[in-house]
Design a protein that fits this description.
heterotrimer; A alpha/beta (388); B mainly alpha (320); C mainly alpha (305); A: 388 residues; alpha/beta; Rossmann fold; 2 domains; eight-stranded mixed β-sheet; six-stranded mixed β-sheet; 14 strands; 40% helix; globular; C: 305 residues; mainly alpha; two-stranded antiparallel ribbon; 11 helices
């Protein structure tokens, strides 16, 4: 009985949802709830701001963005991807914050020849052997910020470093990246549980090890809690903390507060970048949302512009996916980070900078750019990628 | 009998109708419903017929899913090897867990089955070689051989449907056979059944193992269908979800598993997919809160209609 | 391995165990006296934490906010008992399990509707620094306060149960409900009161742990299982059992998280060693429960005669 009901509903829905041929549909899946929601919300806001500033269009074609919350669960993300790709028949899929969810959900897109553009996660297997023609990265390869941080730690002369990251692909990539450019001794390499919030045990170990520096990759809610507990345990005065840029951007600076002043980090972008696209972006974002954009928002914004540029180049004919791919590889858009170009594994080649947390003219906590760590860096895995 | 025939005809005709309108998504969705129906029916055997409140049933579904996935990842891609292996390993797990748990009663049984399920959850989560937390993605579905393409949604649907109907038929026969009657007697009054001389422990264990084996099959099908498995499939909340399906559908009724799975999954999908205007005006964003509706329905059923949907249709009263 | 490290980790284990005790105590009383499996106990913990988040912000004082949250949660718990849960006392365990599971779903969504998926709760500024317990050991003062509060509440509960009239009724009801009823105890009021106390304890745990973990929807589910394990180990209906069980679990968990990864690190790769520790700790807790049940099927300190 319920099956018949279902069939009738489905047929009716299908008839109703017959799409207009000239509309771009984008499936946007991200982590919009839970302790790390700030990241997904920022990416979404950045993305939607770009679309809005383009008059609700991408590449001159009206765009419909379907937003779904993966709730930090890979299976939910995957189910959303299935719905967007197979039922809603989106032209592009994007939005995912975390690598584990990406690896579960994105294959749904590229198995069906739909392009996935990553505004954040870019795990190393996808940079090398498993590089995929339908996977584009608008942010950075997973290892990048960590490599830059490792080089900075070496340059600063820290003889020993204690490393902490969550136990998932991006965590593994992060510490591998740090070690690739850090020439000192590794005091310890500890992997915590993804989503773990209480770090009492780990902090006690760090204290006992007495390293010269502590490097952590703990995005979102994990980082907020760790840094707060690190300060509460009285360790912030004795042990210098280094983080990758997304470990102390706006989503963490706001809740943690002044304890973050003086924290060094590495990133591909900062609020104070002086190019036209960035000035426009930061001003518009602040006006629209009443808060400063984080690096995640910048990535979301760039992702939308990347798609916009590609669609414009194919003059709106997104059905020809191969043409769209070619256009996307050319990356004709004004990125907020400055120049943008893709490596042959479809991940960016770009500069990475050293930043420090300070206060802006209005007394708000922000990251300030103080130097360049890498110029035109790609990633360590591209040689394994068979794509040209 | 006529209703049963009608239902079967509808189930058989469904994917053909969906293919005609080129909507393979809903064929895939229906396959998922049927797979959950198998899982719920397997739980129904232990819970509804056997009266064993196992809160760890997700462990067997999960075991089946992981066995099938790991085999596939290691190169054993034939369904004819994977699925029986999944059934066998789940049956073994059920035998081991059941042997220990069934020595306890009441809440201790619930707790122990829950504990074992959680143990398996943590063990699987720590298996980094097979994805751990992130889960394991498979490049394809289990191969069916015989010239059939499991990747074809319609074909896969029929395979699942066939297995579900076979299971229901087996359950139907089992319930009427001596075994089934002994199980019912034990459920209704264990002390009396023991006094009569029935082998209570062995019968319950056998029932538990059969339920576990069927759950393992559901797990293998689930992993194949989604080409993805992740430790959440073993979490106790999943056991709870299966229980909800059984209760809504009708605990102890043959079709309870199917009705419950169809009702719950369809309801969730409809809420997410098709906004209802007046409801949206009442509570904007209600679509994100489908759990509230499900919880309320479950509560109402437990309080006022403990026989579930199937119970509304059969006059046969069942002892609570 | 220094003494400082061992001491610090022991304190962490103690802190975790005591918070678990707050939840387990309420759960064991409800289960022991009303013979009801209440899966929604974890949801009361969640509601308590969310209430604390709002009230701390509204009053500007951490202590005031937490106290108010405790009172509000107790009221909420009692309301829940009177309106809904008391219908389940006479039903079978399956119905109780299902109905309270439904309550988990409903409360999760209700909280999400009212507050969103999470709420900010920070530890009071005065407690966000360390305290030097012994030379060389700086321990977060907030965690120290949690330990002190936990111990104080445990002591208060003991006093309540052993020295007061109400406590005597509770113990009577736990060991033999029918007899207590026959003796003319106003069982309905007693049940409501016990439920209220359980809810209050949950709210205290939720408010105190909120700043350390995160106040988020679904936070009760994981800790609920541990609480059940604790009361099964300790013996249903026994507060002493709940305390012993909680401390045992706290110790096992800490050893697993703190020391096992180091041990495994000697043999395995870091990622594997790091994953194995917590996994084994979790498994060990359940194994502990299975072993206790095998030798003492009623738990370590059964309340029932």
């Amino acid at each position: 009985m319920s099956k018949k009901f279902l069939a009738v509903i489905a047929a009716a829905a299908l008839a109703l949802s017959a799409q207009a041929a000239d509309r771009i549909k984008v499936g946007f899946i991200s982590t919009l709830s839970g302790p790390s929601a700030a990241l997904g919300v920022d990416i979404r806001d950045g993305f939607q701001l770009a679309v809005k500033m383009n008059g609700g269009k991408l590449g001159g074609v009206p765009a419909e963005v379907l937003v779904g919350d993966d709730q930090f669960k890979p299976d939910v993300g995957r189910q959303l991807a299935e719905r967007y790709v197979r039922l809603e028949k989106v032209n592009f899929l994007t939005g995912i914050v975390f690598s584990n969810i990406l690896l579960a959900a994105a294959p749904m897109a590229w198995d069906n020849k739909i392009i996935y553009v990553s505004p954040n996660a870019a795990p190393s297997p996808l940079a090398g052997k498993q590089c995929n023609p339908y996977f584009f990265v608008a942010s950075w390869p997973n290892d990048a910020y960590h490599e830059a941080a490792g080089k900075h730690a070496t340059d600063k002369g820290y003889k020993s470093a204690y490393l902490i990251a969550p136990n998932y692909q991006a965590g593994k990539d992060s510490l591998a990246g740090f070690k690739r450019f850090y020439k000192g001794t590794i005091a310890a390499e500890v992997y915590t549980q993804l989503g773990q919030l209480d770090y009492a045990a780990e902090l006690a170990q760090v204290r006992a090890a007495k390293p010269d520096a502590l490097y952590i990759f703990l995005p979102g809610g994990m980082g907020i809690n760790f840094i707060k507990q690190f300060v509460a345990a009285g360790m912030s005065k004795d042990i210098p903390l280094i983080v990758p840029g997304f470990g102390d951007d706006q989503d963490i600076l706001r809740p943690v507060g002044e304890a973050t002043l003086g924290l060094f980090d590495s990133a591909h972008w900062a609020l104070d970048f002086d190019n036209a696209a960035n000035r426009k972006f930061v001003a518009a974002f602040e006006k629209e949302f009443n808060r400063l954009p984080s690096v995640f928002a910048a990535q979301g914004y760039d992702t939308a512009l990347l798609i916009d540029g590609a669609v414009r180049d194919v003059k709106g004919k997104v059905e020809d996916v191969q043409a769209v791919r070619k256009a996307m590889k050319a990356a004709h858009f004004e990125s907020v980070r400055g120049a943008f170009k893709f490596n042959r594994n479809q991940m960016p080649i770009q500069n990475y900078y050293l930043r420090v947390v300070g206060k802006d003219a209005q007394g708000r906590l922000v990251n300030k750019t103080i130097g360049t760590i890498f110029k035109d860096r790609g990633d360590a895995y591209v040689q394994d990628c068979p794509m040209k | 009998m006529k209703t049963v025939a009608a239902v079967i005809v509808l189930l058989v005709a469904y994917p053909l109708a969906m293919s005609a309108v080129d909507n393979l998504f809903y064929v895939s969705f229906a396959s998922r419903v049927l797979i959950y129906a198998i899982a719920a029916t397997s739980l129904n055997l232990a819970l509804g017929y056997g009266g064993m409140i196992s809160f760890g049933h997700a462990a067997f579904v999960g075991t089946g899913a992981y066995v099938a996935s790991i085999l596939f990842a290691e190169g054993v891609t034939s369904a004819w090897l994977e699925w029986p292996a999944a059934i066998a390993v789940s049956a073994l797990a059920a035998a081991a867990i059941g042997a220990v748990s069934l020595r306890t009663r009441g809440v201790y049984f619930i707790m122990i089955t829950l504990a074992f399920a959680q143990m398996m959850f943590y063990l699987v989560t720590s298996m980094k070689a097979y994805g751990g937390d992130e889960g394991l993605s498979l490049p394809g579905r289990a191969e069916l051989g015989l010239g059939l393409d499991a990747g074809n949604e319609v074909t896969f649907y029929y395979v699942v449907l066939g297995l579900l109907l076979a299971l229901l038929y087996a359950l139907h026969r089992l319930a009427r056979a001596r075994f089934g009657r002994v199980v019912t007697a034990i459920r209704e009054n264990e002390v009396r059944a023991e006094a009569i001389g029935f082998p209570v422990y062995r019968t319950k264990l056998a029932c538990f193992v059969i339920a576990g084996a069927a759950g393992g099959l559901a797990g293998a099908l689930l992993a194949s269908h989604g080409k993805y498995v992740n430790p959440n499939v073993l979490h106790w909340i999943q056991s709870g979800t299966l229980m909800i399906m059984v209760i809504i559908g009708g605990v102890g009724h043959l079709w309870g598993g199917l009705i419950g799975a169809a009702a719950l999954l369809t309801l969730e999908h409809l809420i997410a997919e098709y906004p209802v205007d007046w409801l949206a005006r009442l509570a904007p964003n209600y679509q994100q809160h489908a759990g509230l509706g499900v919880g309320l329905v479950l509560l109402l059923i437990v309080l006022f209609a403990p026989q579930g949907i199937a119970g509304l249709f059969t006059r046969r009263a069942r002892a609570p | 391995m220094s003494w400082i490290l061992i001491l610090e980790q022991s304190l962490n284990g103690l802190q975790f165990g005591l918070m678990l005790f707050l939840l387990a105590a309420g759960l064991t009383l409800v289960f022991g006296i009303m013979d009801m499996i209440n899966l929604a106990h974890g949801s009361l913990y969640m509601v308590g934490a969310f209430l604390a988040a709002t009230l701390v912000q509204a009053t500007g004082s951490f202590a005031a906010g937490v106290l108010l949250a405790i009172a509000a949660s107790a009221a909420f718990g009692m309301l829940l008992e009177v309106s809904l849960l008391r219908r389940l006392y006479t039903r079978d365990h399956l119905s109780q399990v299902l109905a309270t599971f439904a309550l988990i779903l409903i409360l999760n969504e209700a909280v999400r509707l009212v507050w969103g998926s999470d709420a900010p709760l920070s530890m009071p500024a005065a407690l966000s620094g360390p305290v030097e317990l012994i030379p060389g050991l700086m321990y977060p003062s907030y965690r120290l306060v949690i330990i002190v509060v936990g111990l104080a509440v445990a002591a208060a509960l003991f006093l309540l149960v052993t020295k007061t009239r109400m406590g005597m009724l509770v113990r009577a009801g736990a060991s033999n409900r029918e007899m207590a009823l026959a003796m003319g105890v106003n069982i309905r009021a007693l049940f409501t009161a016990v439920f209220g106390i359980g809810a209050a304890l949950c709210a205290l745990a939720g408010s105190l742990l909120g700043p350390l973990l995160a106040v988020q929807v679904g936070m009760g589910e994981n800790i609920l299982i541990l609480a059940f394990v604790v009361i099964v180990i300790g013996g249903i209906g026994s507060i002493r059992g709940a305390l012993v069980g909680s401390l045992l679990v706290g110790v096992v968990d800490t050893i697993g998280r703190a020391f096992l990864p180091i041990l495994f690190g000697l043999f395995f790769q870091p990622r594997v060693a790091s994953a194995a520790g917590p996994a084994i700790a979790s498994v060990a807790i359940y194994l502990l429960m299975a072993v206790v049940l095998y030798f003492k099927p009623q738990g370590l300190f059964p309340a029932r005669g």
